[in-house]
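Is nicotinamide-adenine-dinucleotide placement plausible here? Inputs below.
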Amino acid sequence: MDHKVPRSCLPTGIALLHNPQLNKGTAFTGAERDALGLHGLLPPRTCTLADQVSRVMENFQRKSSDLERYIQLIALQDRNETLFYRVVVDNPELTLPILYTPTVGEACQKYGHIYRQSRGMFISCEDRGRIARVLANWPTRNVRVIVVTDGERILGLGDLGANGMGIPIGKLTLYTACGGVDPDVCLPVTIDVGTENASLLQDRLYLGLPRQRVRGDEYHALLDEFITAANMLFPGVLIQFEDFATANAFRLLEEYRDRVLCFNDDIQGTGAVALAGLLTAARVQGNRLRDHRVLFFGAGEAAVGIGRMVIMEMQEQGLSADEAEQRCWFMDSQGLITRSRQDLPPHKRQLARDCLPIKLLPDAIGELKPTAIVGVSGQSGAFSQEAIAALARHNERPVIFALSNPTSKSECTAEQAYGWTGGRCIFAAGSPFPPVAVGEKTLHTGQGNNAYIFPGMGLGVLVSRAKCVTDRMFTAAARTLSSLVSDADLAAGRIYPKFDRIRDVSARIAVAVAEIAFEGRLTDLDRPDDLSAAIQEAMYEPRYRSYV
Ligand code: NAD
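Reply from A.M.:
I modeled the complex. Tokens:
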């Protein structure tokens, strides 16, 4: 017998079939049906888990839209968690673009219209003063990871208020599917402080508080109460901040990173995944990151996160802080961020350089001669033919990362990037693009998906019981990810490993992260002799347990 719930506590009959953690559906064996009062409640034939996966995927393929596929998969998650994770783990390239970007964006926009069943926890500004009591309603105390959003900046889609819940749910699904973090220890949270999205406020089916956002001291006090209560109820829980608007994202990270176990995926996770792509691009060119000059188009959370990691890594490669900074420039809607600009918000001041106040991207490329451009502006089409041609003029292998999500916001398409550079560019995007034919070759575009980093980061932090998450953990994760890109990947145009290797990628990132925790004495645990085996052993594997 092999199950977490003692036999005496196991529900029977219909209650067992309605328990998603324990349900096996048609896979209950004859002996289990005898013992657990299931006869007559299921069709007679017993299926294997593999049969069930085939049935789900047949239905998945038949659906008429990606949103329908999303609804199908979430309904399965609500019904049979083991089967759900088996489907995702066995079919990551098909299911993850549905459960996460890009389809999750549409699911969030329509959350109130496709809602079927609650998942995770909602904390609203009306819970001020009683958040610990609200969190105590969660059925277990064994929570080790929380992903939390306030819904103000969902992907590149803006303020979606309480509809943002799809994001913490999706991210935690990836923790389990990609990183092997046990679903039982994951808690998605949405902090509902209202929304400024006029169409949601007018929507009768919107499920959040129909009010303008709470801001200022009241907002900060609410978030502080939440973080304190979460640590009281779930001591040492890892909190991942997700899709907060720029100023709040920076403030929360700076305020809490040294006090509680937390990180911000939009800043640090993005930084690591893009750094990995740039390290691989340097490998393709036979040089090093320190030889590159990077022009960022956009100067928000993603740009700051990537910029910091790139500068850290260039220093690791021997440059001084000043030399490294002089190799990274940033643009926003007003043009290059220069020291002469007045009224820059705090996060942009660190990005200011002594350079000419150039307004347009092609001119900035002509003047600064970057080797790489990184689009993190949310501005569809911002990488024009003129800009890309300017980059291609002085680079044999120009590096073009159009990272804005969803696909409709991408600074350029894969086809444009390859087409306008005669197939010479090294390209990555934030969302998946179909392969592009260039002459005789078919090039597979890289997707700088944060899912390459955060599940492994979380697993490494949880297994090592690290007390804080450091930037060095993220640069180590980036180096590991880049090292896993094979020569065959590179030959096919990929600068990230194929996604079907994600469990192995996450396990190796977890090892690298845990090593930093043990080396830096950021944990009270002793390093296991075989860290890699300890990580593997900790990974959740979706398979049915025997109940008899
Ligand atoms: P943000 O709102 O913090 O920053 C956006 C930045 O773009 C701001 O600095 C803004 O000034 C700048 N900007 C706006 N209009 C511009 C214009 N016309 N020209 C130049 N700059 C302009 O958002 P963020 O979190 O930094 O995310 C930015 C984009 O990156 C989003 O589309 C997001 O989906 C994407 N992103 C992708 C990944 C990934 O691929 N792994 C990860 C994180 C974010």
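Short version: The chain has a mean pLDDT of 96.
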